[in-house]
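Bench log. Compound arrived from synthesis this morning; before running ITC I wanted a structural hypothesis for how S-adenosyl-L-homocysteine sits in the protein. Inputs:
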Amino acid sequence: MERVWDPFELVRAQMVDEQLVRRGIADARVLGAMRKVPRQLFVDEALRGRAYGDHPLPIGEEQTISQPYIVALMTELLELSGREKVLEIGTGSGYQTAVLAELARRVCSIERLPRLAERARALLEQRGYTNVWVRVGSGTLGWPDEAPFDRILVTASGPAVPPPLFAQLVEGGRMVVPIGDALNQVLTLVEKVRGEMKTRECGECKFVKLVGKYAWEA
Ligand code: SAH
């Protein structure tokens, strides 16, 4: 790809150092991807100046793009080597999807709101990603035709791990999912060990609602 000057390069490098490295994100591949993906393109033009702030931002339809640190933390917890097939639930802006596409073999992403899905799909295509599939659908059911997945990332929070998602995870696979109610949520790492669910709590977080059959009602 031709290298064009990006006026946000410096502020992006600063975000990586101050918000990610300083808080303990250590995976060099994750840091590299977040130094590369132009986050400002995934928010509304009027919000571009705040794209690298230490907070989430609105993306329309009452949804948000996650805080950079949370994107980095969830991605690091997935432990991606580059060979994985990843399922993402909640495409939203497509920013997290782009970070995953930099780090995995193939990314299948599901978004329930058609307008967000269309915008993210167009942007990801424009950025040249050929290993990403975005689909409109009900994410708590997973993507049976593409299963199983080596990794699953859910970027909206539900009351529990949706059973179809755990079923679509490979043996030895990892899933990262925020679990809790509207007020209190815990970022949860789920591993499939001999078919059983092993979970580890990785800190508090706050996400928009996961809506669907195995989560909250619309
Ligand atoms: N990773 C996104 C975060 C978007 S917010 C980003 O960085 O921009 C969470 C997204 O999950 C919202 O767009 C919301 O519409 C979507 N969502 C909620 N429930 C869903 C479901 N059951 N299936 C698919 N997407 C869902």
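What the model suggests: The first helix runs from residue 9 to 21. The first strand starts at residue 57 and ends at 60.
ITC booked for Thursday regardless.
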